[in-house]
Automatic annotation (TrEMBL):
One Pfam family matching this protein: Cation_ATPase_C
MF (Gene Ontology): ATP binding; ATP hydrolysis activity; P-type sodium:potassium-exchanging transporter activity
Coiled-coil ranges per UniProt: none
Record keywords, A-Z: ATP-binding, Cell membrane, Membrane, Nucleotide-binding, Translocase, Transmembrane, Transmembrane helix
Protein's recorded name: Cation-transporting P-type ATPase N-terminal domain-containing protein
Annotated localization: Cell membrane
Transmembrane segments: 65-84, 229-247, 259-284, 677-701, 778-796, 814-832, 844-862
Membrane topology, record value: Multi-pass membrane protein
NCBIfam families: ATPase_P-type
Keyword match Ligase: no
Lineage, highest ranks first: Bacteria, Bacillati, Bacillota, Clostridia, Eubacteriales
Domain Cation-transporting P-type ATPase N-terminal: 3-61
Biological processes annotated in GO: intracellular potassium ion homeostasis; intracellular sodium ion homeostasis; potassium ion import across plasma membrane; proton transmembrane transport; sodium ion export across plasma membrane
Length: 883
């Protein structure tokens, strides 16, 4: 491949990108314009209207035919434009989740878009990473990969450098890593040998390219079922109107066209599309607020969330680790400096030290050698690549002149025993400058201390007695009480390295000291927690840190349960059976010294009690809990690929406040969908009531077929889309979450729709009857005016769930434009002479318009008063969060 240990140069990588295709799988093509047109023509309502237009042509009703076709063309054009916009939005959102890869270029490890990889690139992989291309292993440390997506075998496969015959089955090629598989354990470096469609998974994908058919979300499926019911009911009503018209002597042609137009106008065929648009807009808005939605149904569940289980580090806190205190040789030292810049001073009490003591040198050397992170100066700012806790230890060492790049020249790493949740420590075996071997370990004090037999004091090791152990643990508790993450460091020389087991290598260690690492809370967390409390959402902090550290952070950010904070440790959780946990879980809001399996058990216990659980995670071991939660949330910065793959949401900034914003957005999306349904169905009910009422009373039909279609065009499409684009209500987080069992029509929504539909329909019949004394054209204009103006009023007042809420007019300019455009279309049908000839209307005088506006305003006020007499406003019917 022509690669070196330094990796490819930028120039060579660019040259190979021109030779090889991009490192991505070929996607199925989107729908062409012709396919979009066919999709629009395939709609049942369009088919019926085309038939009606043909019927008009056969009957030589050319004006009616041309008008119907024109309305169809406008509707079809709007539908095609919306499809194109949705497709572009989804493509833009896919770009937000483009995978990255760690690659060595010109001797530097950098992060690049995975698409930019070329054969010959040297990539670096750690547990949780998704393999970005097919590659051959050059070196590995306890590396295992999960290849079920390729081989079907769920058990991770151990990987190591070597050579396998070309005809070896995929599942047995232990020296190769395959694109799309996931590293579950260990780390390694590999050489890319195939990219994109040339990879093993690419060969499979080439056989399967087809048009993707996205599945409907549960909400869309519910609406599709509701649409079928409404369609059946409307066809029955239309048949009644058609039959009654014939009995009354109306012409069969006119009644057929009326029945068809009535069906088209009354059926809210756009409901499912409106939900799709609402969800798409929600996804787009959330992406602008640093949240990537991976599964659309999540948006429907977010509004029900009543428990958030969150990590502390990096989510509640800044994840900017800095060593502030060091306990070494029975003395406590302070270290200054912020961030990862290797600049700071060392103090003992109030006295500045000229340099580190021999004991401190041992401590910082252990912290720098037992470390996989790296520091680099990028654009004038020091940044850490890797774990931030390890970055803090590197920075502290560099402040004391103990730099990783210098140590690596004289200490060569021979083996790494990675950190895992069971052992709770990490160890590396290094060859020292004199050729002897030594082990360097770091971990939690309660894990490291029992493994230590001696303590480094002065220039030699001495036995670690019980008094010293108590003093060390007391110092660790003091640090933890200041919200420090406490890391213990130890080492020991190895005389017979080759014959040692892992347990033996990590036993009888020499204790070096404690490092107190500060990770301050994010400033916006307090406000986000307050929003959760007012919204009835319980927050549980789960941390691997010391109990005192977790308590100190909770106090600082203002977290408090209903009866104060109840903290348990992972060990205490292990001692509880399921029944005990079920009894206690309502009071618990802090968990310290937690392991990933504790998260999974907690999620299951909460779900069994009926809670809708949000779980955050970043590491490989968090994936089961994230997957089990109702809403799994992965961290975009520090999260592993495996955790992102099983998550429903990805926070691109890892902020807790961003998660709370996502919940608010989820509530807003559901509320906006309800508003759109309320608007569409109520106005359609009004039209049906008006037509049916006039027919039953023996009056002429208030609206011609063309007027029904015109009213449908002016009032259904754009206004409903604008409604679902409403920004979140500032009070959205001031009420409890809705219950999962609450459907779209829960609370008083069904009553609101029927009441407003009756008011609109009956007032239209009344004004039509009054106008008949002036002639049918005037009566028809009056009926159209009342329907149009009532529709306009309803567009704005259906945005509020509480009658006391003010109607906001200026915070959604799209709604204003859509509303006034619909109103202008109604005015044009009434007032323009050319429209009068087409729609058989007559211009209204000022007094008649005053009647139209007055009747419409009265019905709106009556409806609002009816809302006040409901037993409970909608906001109180969403259910209480019993947490």
């Amino acid at each position: 491949m022509g690669s070196q240990e330094q990796g490819l140069s930028g120039e060579e990588a660019a040259l190979r990108r021109r030779v090889f295709s991009p490192n991505r799988l070929t996607e199925s093509p989107g729908l062409s314009v012709w396919q979009l047109i066919k999709k629009q023509l395939g709609d049942v309502m369009v088919t019926i209207l085309l038939g009606a237009a043909g019927f008009c042509l056969a009957a030589e009703k050319y004006t009616d035919a041309i008008t119907i076709i024109t309305i169809l063309l406008i509707n079809g054009l709007l539908g095609i434009l919306q499809e194109i916009k949705a497709h572009k939005s989804l493509k833009a959102l896919k770009k937000l989740t483009v995978p990255t890869a760690q690659v060595v270029r010109e001797g530097r490890q950098i992060t690049v878009c995975a698409e930019e990889l070329v054969p010959g690139d040297l990539i670096v992989l750690h547990a949780g990473d998704r393999v970005p291309a097919d590659a051959v292993l050059l070196r590995s440390v306890n590396l295992e990969a999960e290849e079920s997506s390729l081989t079907g075998e769920a058990a991770p496969v151990s990987k190591k450098p070597g050579v396998t015959p070309p005809d070896t089955p995929l599942g047995e090629r232990t020296n190769l890593l395959f694109m799309g598989t996931c590293i579950t354990r260990g780390s390694g470096a590999a050489l890319v040998v195939a990219t994109g469609m040339a990879t093993e998974v690419g060969k499979i994908a080439g056989m399967m390219i087809s048009e993707e058919k996205p599945e409907l979300t549960p909400l869309q499926q519910t609406l599709a079922g509701m649409n079928k019911f409404i369609v059946s009911a409307c066809f029955i009503i239309c048949a009644v109107i058609f039959s009654l018209g014939l009995l009354r002597g109306e012409g069969i042609f006119d009644m057929f066209l009326t029945a068809v137009s009535m069906a088209v106008a009354a059926i809210p065929e756009g409901l499912t599309a409106i939900v799709t648009i609402a969800l798409t807009l929600g996804v787009y808005r959330m992406s602008k607020s640093n949240t990537i939605v991976r599964h659309l149904p999540t948006l429907e569940t977010l509004g029900c969330a009543n428990v958030i289980c969150t990590d502390k580090t990096g989510t509640i806190t800044k994840n900017e680790m800095t060593v502030r205190e060091v306990f070494c040789g029975q003395e406590k030292y302070a270290l200054t400096g912020d961030g990862y810049a290797p600049e700071g001073k060392l103090f003992l009490a109030d006295r500045e030290m000229a340099g580190p003591t021999p004991g401190l040198r041992k401590l910082f050397r252990a912290g720098v050698l037992c470390n996989n992170a790296r520091l680099s100066l990028e654009n004038g700012r020091w940044v850490v690549h890797g774990d931030t806790t390890e970055g803090a230890l590197l920075t502290a060492g560099a402040k004391m002149g103990i730099k990783k790049e210098d140590l690596e020249k004289i200490y060569s790493r021979v083996e790494e025993i990675p950190f895992d949740a069971d052992r709770r420590l990490m160890t590396v075996i290094c060859r020292q400058p004199d050729g002897s071997m030594a082990a360097f370990s770091k971990g939690a004090p309660e894990t490291i201390l029992p493994s230590c037999a001696s303590i480094w004091s002065g220039s030699a090791a001495s036995p670690l007695n019980q008094a010293s152990r108590k003093k060390i643990l007391a110092q660790a508790e003091q640090m933890a009480g200041k919200a420090f993450r406490v890391m213990a460091l130890a080492w020991k020389p190895l005389e017979d390295y080759g014959a040692l087991t892992t347990a033996e290598a990590e036993n009888n260690l020499i204790f070096c000291g404690l490092a107190g690492i500060l990770d301050p809370p994010r400033p916006e967390v307090k406000g986000a927690l307050a929003a959760c409390q007012s919204a009835g959402v319980k927050v549980i902090i789960i941390s691997g840190d010391h109990p005192l550290t977790v308590k100190a952070i909770a106090k600082e950010i203002g977290l408090s349960g209903a009866s104060g904070n109840r903290l348990i440790t992972g060990q205490e959780l292990d001692g509880m059976d399921d029944a005990a946990l079920a009894r206690e879980i309502g009071a618990i809001n802090l968990i310290a010294r937690a392991a990933p399996d504790h998260k999974l058990r907690l999620v299951k216990a909460l779900k069994q009690q009926g809670h809708v659980v949000v779980m955050t995670g970043d590491g490989v071991n968090d994936a089961p809990a994230v997957k089990e939660a109702d809403i799994g949330v992965a961290m975009g910065i520090n999260g592993t690929d495996l955790t992102k793959d099983v998550s429903a949401l990805v926070l691109t900034d890892d902020h807790f406040a961003t998660l709370v914003k996502a919940i608010k957005e989820g509530r807003s999306i559901f509320a906006n969908i309800r508003h759109a349904i309320r608007y569409l169905v109520a106005t359609n009910v009004g039209e049906v009531v008006a037509m049916l009422g006039a027919t039953l009373l023996g009056m002429p039909l208030p609206l011609t077929p063309l007027l029904l279609l015109w009213l449908n065009l002016s009032g259904d499409g754009l206004p409903a889309i604008a409604l679902v684009a409403d920004p979140p209500d500032p009070n959205q987080m001031n009420h409890p979450p809705r219950k999962v069992k609450d459907g779209l029509f829960s609370g008083v929504l069904g009553k609101q729709i029927l009441r407003r539909g009756l008011f609109i329909g009956l007032s239209t019949v009344a004004v039509f009857k009054w106008g008949l004394g002036k002639g049918i054209p005037v009566a028809r204009s009056l009926a159209l005016g009342v329907l149009g103006v009532s529709q306009f009023f309803h567009l704005f007042d259906c945005r509020k769930d509480e009658p006391s809420s003010p109607i906001k007019l200026l915070n959604n300019r799209y709604l204003l434009v859509a509303g006034f455009l619909g109103l202008l279309m109604v005015l044009a049908a009434i007032q323009l002479p050319g429209a009068n000839r087409i729609f058989l209307t007559r211009p209204l005088f000022m007094g008649e318009w005053l009647v139209v506006w007055g009747i419409s305003l009265i019905t709106a006020l009556l409806d609002d008063q009816g809302f006040l007499t409901a037993k409970k406003p909608f906001g109180q019917l969403r259910g209480q969060a019993n947490v």
